[in-house]
Amino acid sequence: MVIISNSSRRASTTIEKISSLGFNPALFLGAITSGELTHQYLLRRDDPWFAALGNYCIHMTWSDRGAISLEGLGIQVVDNVEEAEFILAHGTEALGLPSGEALPKTLEELNRVLGQCAAKKIPMVVANPDFVTVEARALRVMPGTLAATYEKLGGEVKWMGKPGEIIYESAMAMAGVDAADCIAVGDSLHHDIKGANIAGISSAFITGGIHATELGLGEFGETAADSSVTSLATKYEAFPTYVLPSFTW
Description:
- The protein has helices at residues 11-20, 34-44, 48-51, 107-120, 143-152, 165-175, 189-199, 226-236, and strands at residues 2-5, 30-33, 56-61, 76-77, 86-89, 94-96, 102-104, 124-126, 132-135, 138-141, 157-159, 183-186, 202-206, 242-244.
- It is an alpha/beta fold.
- Strand 6 and strand 7 form a beta hairpin.
- The model has no long low-confidence stretch (mean pLDDT 93).
């Protein structure tokens, strides 16, 4: 098994977190995260789009969840939009400062900064394409929501991670397998299932995750109606091979 995650943190952090979630890390071959892909692309700059970014960025990061370090990337964080050459979105709780500290901000405050950036027409790199995530059955807003807002403002966004094909290709390369030998398991139709569709691999949709409310589910392990799953899959244009109420065995 390979973990494919839209986490904005490095792959090593994801592997370290596995034990705290009750899993044996030895069961996994490794992890590919959006944060890892973003770090590598910013470090190498061998992709023309990334090579043209510049080095001065507005950094949207985490506060309560812990800010993300940009050490070793040669990037200078600025808090003045006029100095910025691009936006780097790792989180939705704070704005990075030149000192390395993170200044807590509301979503509304970050959206105002996005408006200023859109007026300047600078690009965004989003290191976590998820719109929301489930935490203790509650939904938390993720950086993909900022990226979607920025696109609506006319901004250019480079989406790193699911549903983009590159993260699936990286996982298959790590495992040394072809698409025909893989199955992707996830709870997001837009990210996990659509990503599997794009990559040409089978998928299993877990209904008890972020779409539970949309599917009318109130209890963990409750089975969703086939008609509800079909309707939701059509809405997101993401079509799973299999459907499961939870990922348990």
